[in-house]
């Protein structure tokens, strides 16, 4: 597992707290409670690398994990959580927006979506941020274990068609489950490739 060396590095609340912008990093975005932190844990093979919780909106900063020298995974704050106060929400939107616009190290975006609620408004916003800059993106339809095989395939096909229509082949999509580990190897290969590991 090329991501197994991952270690917690830092949590950034402000742009100036980000590590030097001279490496390679892959960002993980997704609605609150979609399963970002769980996906990070599954991909790195660590049970408690990223904090997971049953309380949505828990990850409130950009959390950096270092995989190797200058190679990072970034857990972005979950979006779409209604109870976050408006001023805090606009602070985050500004921060994330600026991050996507300016971050040279950013090599690719993983969008984690609950397979039962794919491609919501903010998911599309994140995909637009990445693809507008010419960055590749990859969608994980996670919690696939919650659906039967037939429904999984149906969801995958639908999302794949929508992505192809809008983004051509710059955005990939796959089934995923942090619970059953379905799709973990496939996703890990994408992330490791972007990090040039
Ligand atoms: P925030 O940091 O709050 O935005 O959430 P997150 O996107 O990091 O979600 P997290 O990984 O904390 O998971 C949220 C809840 O979903 C937890 O209760 C997890 O155990 C559960 N969960 C995550 N991934 C899966 C999965 O693949 N299958 C199932 N069944 N449950 C999952
Ligand atoms: Mg989280």
UniProtKB/TrEMBL annotation:
<dbReference type="GO" id="GO:0000917">
    <property type="term" value="P:division septum assembly"/>
</dbReference>
<keyword id="KW-0131">Cell cycle</keyword>
<dbReference type="InterPro" id="IPR006073">
    <property type="entry name" value="GTP-bd"/>
</dbReference>
<keyword id="KW-0342">GTP-binding</keyword>
<keyword id="KW-0460">Magnesium</keyword>
<keyword id="KW-0717">Septation</keyword>
<dbReference type="GO" id="GO:0005525">
    <property type="term" value="F:GTP binding"/>
</dbReference>
<dbReference type="InterPro" id="IPR030393">
    <property type="entry name" value="G_ENGB_dom"/>
</dbReference>
<feature type="domain" description="EngB-type G">
    <location>
        <begin position="22"/>
        <end position="197"/>
    </location>
</feature>
<keyword id="KW-0132">Cell division</keyword>
<dbReference type="GO" id="GO:0005829">
    <property type="term" value="C:cytosol"/>
</dbReference>
<keyword id="KW-0547">Nucleotide-binding</keyword>
<comment type="similarity">
    <text>Belongs to the TRAFAC class TrmE-Era-EngA-EngB-Septin-like GTPase superfamily. EngB GTPase family.</text>
</comment>
<dbReference type="InterPro" id="IPR019987">
    <property type="entry name" value="GTP-bd_ribosome_bio_YsxC"/>
</dbReference>
<protein>
    <recommendedName>
        <fullName>Probable GTP-binding protein EngB</fullName>
    </recommendedName>
</protein>
<keyword id="KW-0479">Metal-binding</keyword>
<dbReference type="GO" id="GO:0046872">
    <property type="term" value="F:metal ion binding"/>
</dbReference>
<comment type="function">
    <text>Necessary for normal cell division and for the maintenance of normal septation.</text>
</comment>
<dbReference type="InterPro" id="IPR027417">
    <property type="entry name" value="P-loop_NTPase"/>
</dbReference>
<dbReference type="Pfam" id="PF01926">
    <property type="entry name" value="MMR_HSR1"/>
</dbReference>
């Amino acid at each position: 597992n090329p991501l197994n060396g991952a270690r917690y590095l830092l949590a950034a609340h402000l742009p100036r707290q980000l590590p030097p912008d001279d490496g390679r990093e892959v960002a993980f975005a997704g609605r609150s409670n979609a399963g970002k932190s769980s996906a990070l844990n599954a991909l790195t093979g660590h049970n408690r690398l990223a904090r997971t919780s049953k309380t949505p909106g828990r990850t409130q900063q950009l959390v950096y994990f270092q995989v190797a020298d200058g190679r990072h995974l970034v857990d972005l704050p979950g979006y779409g959580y209604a109870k976050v106060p408006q001023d805090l929400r606009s602070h985050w939107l500004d921060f994330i927006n600026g991050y996507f616009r300016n971050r040279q190290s950013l090599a690719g975006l993983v969008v984690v979506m609950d397979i039962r609620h794919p491609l919501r408004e903010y998911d599309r916003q994140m995909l637009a941020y990445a693809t507008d800059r010419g960055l590749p993106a990859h969608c994980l339809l996670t919690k696939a274990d919650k659906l039967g095989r037939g429904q999984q395939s149906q969801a995958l096909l639908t999302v794949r068609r929508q992505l192809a229509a809008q983004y051509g082949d710059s955005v990939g999509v796959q089934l995923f489950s942090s619970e059953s580990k379905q799709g973990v190897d496939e996703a890990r290969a994408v992330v490791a490739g972007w990090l040039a590991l």
